[in-house]
Design brief:
- This protein is of the alpha+beta class.
- 19% of the residues lie in helices and 41% in strands.
- The protein has an 18-stranded mixed β-sheet that branches.
- Strand 3 and strand 4 form a beta hairpin.
- The longest helix is centred in the middle third of the chain and has 18 residues.
Length: 344
């Protein structure tokens, strides 16, 4: 067997969303921060993302994470998030996968019953609290980067639909949040394709008609996702709601979506629907759960923001080596429009 590249990959998912973790074979990526390293990878090494996520090795529903040493003395490790069409600054489900793999494989020491870590994502430092029992991480709770609202109930024109109102918020990625029930959705598995088709239209319209530039990092701009919000219910002191997040290239997040949960918490706070410390049970289209809450309030360049935490669980499913043969005709993979909505 002759491989020109070998990557060690730990398969993992968080509440159904695949977030595999690359633990070896990448080598040095230049940059002082994880955002710098992300930017270098996008510019110079994007073939690595395609190798891991495009067919025949990956799939439209896969994400991956590259773990790297951090230059920040507060961080135990850093990671770059790889998604189907981009490297986002933050992802909740991927953070859960990274923390679980680091502890369960022994890359970082596990302490039972609680292990506390600080990890560096491209979006900034992420504090993580892991509940651990018998060598298993039973819950990952991360404190996200500050989340905030760009727009509340703002009208946009959507092709083939007309005028709809959306909220636009940042939770580590920027979301156009739409009322699912008002658009005829119950957020059930049989609606998945229709949610994706409309969600891509809403995202394109919102991104075209609304300007969104992060107040502290102007390189974080544009609307990345659409989030369909199910009705909010109250069970005692706990709030709960279903959701469906449309991820590039036009498929649903299988988990309740960590950054989407933070974005929705920011919207709920702005509308007076939730108080700090109140638990929000966010339910995915497949019935899995993330539990979010507002830990504190802050400002970003005078813009009101909230500090959120999101908790869920991840599971390791395999450990493998991915190889690239010198004669492989698809070193950067390929995509077909039957699942990727476009072909390369």
């Amino acid at each position: 067997m002759q491989w020109k590249r070998t990557l060690t990959v730990v398969g993992c998912h968080a509440e159904g969303e695949v977030g595999n973790v690359v633990t070896g074979g990448v080598g040095h990526i230049p940059g002082d921060t994880m955002f710098d390293k992300k930017r270098y990878l996008e510019t110079n090494l994007d073939g690595l993302r395609k190798l891991l996520l495009f067919e025949p090795r990956g799939a439209a529903v896969h994400c991956a994470n590259i773990v790297l040493p951090s230059n920040n003395p507060k961080a135990a490790m850093g990671y770059i998030i790889l998604e189907a069409e981009e490297c986002p600054p933050m992802s909740g489900s991927n953070t859960m996968c990274v923390a679980t793999v680091l502890l369960e494989t022994g890359m970082l020491a596990m302490q039972e019953p609680v292990t506390r870590l600080t990890l560096e994502a491209p979006g900034g430092l992420i504090d993580v609290v892991c509940q651990c029992r018998d060598g298993k991480v039973t819950q990952v709770k991360f404190t996200n980067v500050p989340s905030f609202v760009y727009h509340i109930d703002i009208p946009i024109e959507v092709e083939g639909v007309g005028t709809i109102s959306v909220d636009v918020a940042y939770g580590g990625m920027t979301y156009a949040l739409a009322d699912a029930k008002g658009l005829g959705f119950e957020i059930t598995p049989d609606e998945a394709r229709d949610l994706c088709v409309l969600g891509e239209k809403i995202k394109a319209a919102a991104d075209d008609q609304l300007e969104t530039v992060h107040p502290e990092n102007p390189e974080i701009r544009g609307i990345t996702q659409t989030e369909f919000m199910g009705p909010l219910h109250k069970d005692g002191e706990q709030l709960t709601a279903r959701n469906a997040v449309v991820v590039k290239p036009g498929r649903l997040d299988r988990s309740p979506c960590g950054t989407g949960t933070s974005a929705r918490l920011a919207v709920m706070h702005a509308k007076g629907l939730i108080s700090p410390g109140q638990i929000f049970d966010h339910v995915s289209i497949i019935g899995s759960h993330f539990f979010g809450e507002i830990e504190d309030t802050t400002t970003l360049d005078d813009k009101p923001a909230v500090i959120t935490s999101v908790a869920g669980q991840a599971w390791i499913s395999f450990i493998s080596q991915h190889g690239l043969a010198p004669t492989d005709p698809f070193p950067q993979g390929y995509t077909l429009s039957d699942t990727w909505l476009r072909a390369i």
